[in-house]
Write a structure and sequence with these properties.
mainly alpha; 21 helices; 0% strand; disordered C terminus
Length: 474
């Protein structure tokens, strides 16, 4: 009888724990989607403008399409990756400041990120100005190199929007206000399509018209973000411009540089592909690869991790990581199946060439596995961003991409008959190695110690608000 009662009590406790776990998972999932869904919408719309522009150019000229694909794949993605990494310092600091209740510091961190990112992009401008010489150096066909240099100059007004759009999104999502970016991004994407049609076909501006439409619609988003922040919708986190933004820039730059290296683009290994069918196929795959990559939940988990570390809650941080990883893997599996089923049809969004479509279909299996892997390592990278461990992950990325992935891809791509497949297999090998290393890093991390480090970091950068200064003077 006693054994029976004990068994029932144990079963009752297990059911209660199971129910409690379900409630906790559901509550955490709602928090995740509150941050992630607007971010997913904005990232897809932002990259959608690039994809739409590529589609318009693809129906103008094969040479222009190959040049656009080269610039977008090599130069723009490289610069975007560096700026995204540099901006992730803002993500770490704003997320932890919000969790700690230091709201006024978020506006200062945002302004510091503008200074650092603007200077960084200006230093990187020779990549666009001397693009023709760069493409010749890496072995591109002369026609593609010249056309790429011309297209590259048109990208300069566009890439400067990254300085503000990336950092403002991180600033707003850290305080759970990024829904406004989703609506602005939808508006941006909505006007981009008719604007491209007007300039390319109706007015007959061709390639320049497509590039003007891309820059114009992208800056509409930035202007909308400025109106939202400066117009008083962020009263606690934006106190106006301040000279405090120029203080303590050195440690911020150090964290930003580590972040920039962490997000270094591995697409450089594809730079020496020639034009023609392989160039077009590369374009189709990388556009979709990039778009699906940013739909992964891992891009936004740094907000949850940073918020909880700022609050000093190590237990909630660990639980959030588990839920985020499970959710992201589920999304990745969905898109994995989607890419397998609709492999060939994807190509017709970018070209009418049947040969290109056949080649895309041939590479769809590799694309699918890339998407699946992208549902894991961005989560783990986001954990590092939220915790401020960019330096460690930067080393992991350098080794995995430049010591393992790129050499392996070069060997398989150029010393065998695999060509594009070989390069892609090498990239996947680097991602697998990176994923395993990040899993080990996350598993070995002492999150109680990370809470202490987050507190020390916030105290080091802290600047008294005007309200606090007035109270002290009284």
């Amino acid at each position: 009888m006693d054994n029976g009662i004990q068994t029932k009590l144990l079963r009752h406790d297990e059911e209660e724990n199971e129910g409690d776990l379900k409630e906790r998972v559901w509550a955490e999932s709602k928090k995740i989607w509150r941050v992630a869904l607007p971010g997913v919408i904005s990232r897809v719309c932002a990259f959608g403008t690039i994809v739409v522009t590529q589609s318009f150019i693809g129906h103008i000229s094969d040479m222009d399409l190959a040049a656009y694909a080269l610039v977008q794949t090599l130069s723009v993605r490289f610069v975007n990756g560096i700026l995204l990494g540099m901006s992730s310092a803002t993500e770490t600091l704003c997320g932890q400041a919000f969790g700690a209740g230091q709201h006024h510091m978020m506006g200062i961190y945002l302004q510091r990120s503008w200074i650092v990112d603007f200077f960084t992009l200006t230093v990187l401008l020779p990549i666009f100005i001397f693009a023709t010489q760069l493409y010749r150096l890496i072995g591109e066909d002369e026609g593609i190199a010249v056309a790429g240099g011309y297209v590259s100059l048109w990208f300069i007004p566009f890439v400067y929007n990254f300085v503000f759009s990336l950092t403002i999104q991180m600033f707003l999502q850290a305080q759970l206000k990024n829904m406004v970016i989703a609506w602005l991004s939808i508006f941006q994407f909505g006007i981009h399509i008719p604007l491209s049609w007007l300039l390319v076909y109706k007015l007959g501006y061709g390639l320049p018209g497509a590039m003007i439409a891309l820059s114009t619609s992208s800056w509409f988003l930035v202007i909308g973000e400025f109106i939202y922040i400066f117009g008083g919708w962020c009263p606690l986190s934006w106190k106006g411009f301040t000279v405090a933004a120029f203080k303590d820039l050195v440690p911020v730059v150090k964290l930003s540089i580590a972040s920039g290296v962490m997000f270094g683009a591995m697409v450089q290994c594809c730079a020496s592909l020639t034009c023609g069918i392989h160039g077009k196929c590369r374009s189709c795959h990388f556009c979709l690869f990039h778009m699906l990559e940013h739909q992964c939940m891992g891009v936004y988990d740094n907000v949850r991790v940073a918020n909880e570390l700022g609050r000093g809650n190590a237990k909630a941080t660990k639980f959030s990581i588990k839920v985020l990883l499970g959710t992201s893997i589920a999304i990745g599996t969905f898109f994995f199946v989607l890419c397998l089923i609709f492999g060939k049809k994807i190509a017709y969004f970018f070209t009418d060439d049947e040969r290109v479509a056949d080649t895309v279909e041939d590479l769809s299996l590799l694309l699918s596995f890339s998407v699946l892997l992208n549902s894991i390592y961005p989560v783990l990278s986001g954990v590092a961003v939220g915790a401020g461990m960019q330096g460690t992950v930067a080393i992991i990325n350098l080794v995995c991409y430049y010591v393992i992935g790129i050499p392996m891809g070069a060997l398989l791509g150029y010393l065998t008959d695999l060509q594009v497949k070989g390069i892609w297999i090498g990239m996947i090998g680097g991602i697998i190695t990176q994923t395993l290393a990040l899993i080990y890093l996350t598993w070995r991390t002492d999150w109680d110690d990370q809470v202490k480090k987050a507190g020390e970091r916030l105290n080091r950068f802290y600047v008294k608000s005007s309200d606090e200064s007035e109270q002290l003077s009284k």
